[in-house]
Amino acid sequence: MAIIASNFKTNHTRKSTADFINNVNDFLNTNSISEDVYVFPTATSLDTFATVSNLTLGAQNAYATANGSFTGEIGTEQLDEFGIKTILIGHSERRHVLNESQEEIAKKFSFYSELGYKVIYCIGEPLEVKEQGLEQTLEYIYEQFVGIDTNYENLILAYEPVWAIGTGVTATNEDIKSVHSAIKARIAKPLLYGGSVKVANVREICSLDGVDGALIGTASWKVEDFKQIIENTKDL
């Protein structure tokens, strides 16, 4: 069954997030949809929601700490208040925009995996690497597994080619299949695809060999679109 995840990034407010979650929850409940759905709101919009068991809220980011003197960060003390046990780690924007090193990412992974969190771990390559071919792409991606326990039981992977995120450029089916099959042959974990996934192409992408679902940004921020994405993949 497909796994569908929405990453809000720096979008939505506390109120619009609550409306979104409740709307999606009603949709899953009313239509008896059982596929796993994840929503990653902003830290200021985290809350306790009564949801069906297959709708999970997660944190987009947190520091490797319970609490402490880390200005601008949140830790497990803040996540525990809302029962959050799911986190995105290694997203390309954390790597490329906020300059998180592999060492920092591995430290975060180690901290949250030791606590039993569900981790959606993101990997992907920039355009200049992709243009060098599949071998170099895979070499670049495998470096993003340094310090990561790929046997961790609560791990979901998400392949996001950096050049396809928010650009409107989607990797071809062949691009997706070749990278996904190589990763899946090496690491036996669910593997999501992310990168300009939208209502129109989500079913086709999630039907490809080696694709276990999608991690979606822009196209998931309107609740009607997100519900349509769930509808389009519910039977896969």
Question: Describe it for me?
Answer:
With 236 residues, the chain is an alpha/beta fold. It has a single domain (3-233), classed as TIM Barrel. 36% of the residues lie in helices and 15% in strands. It is built from nine helices and eight strands. The chain has helices at 14-30, 76-81, 92-96, 102-114, 127-130, 134-143, 173-186, 202-206, 223-233, and strands at 3-7, 36-40, 55-57, 86-89, 118-123, 155-159, 191-193, 213-216. A four-stranded parallel beta sheet has the order 3-2-1-8. The longest helix is centred in the first third of the chain and has 17 residues, at 14-30. The radius of gyration is 17 Å and the shape is globular. It is an enzyme of class 5 (isomerase).
In the CATH hierarchy, what is the superfamily? Aldolase class I
What name does the CATH topology carry? TIM Barrel
Secondary-structure-based class equals alpha/beta
Please identify, by name, the CATH architecture: Alpha-Beta Barrel
Strand content: 5-15%
Helical region count?
A: 9
Radius of gyration: 17 Å
The strands making up the biggest β-sheet line up spatially as 3-2-1-8
Element string (H = helix, E = strand)? EHEEHEHHEHHEHEHEH
Pfam families: TIM
Pathway: Carbohydrate degradation; glycolysis; D-glyceraldehyde 3-phosphate from glycerone phosphate: step 1/1; Carbohydrate biosynthesis; gluconeogenesis
EC number: 5.3.1.1
Keywords: Cytoplasm, Gluconeogenesis, Glycolysis, Isomerase
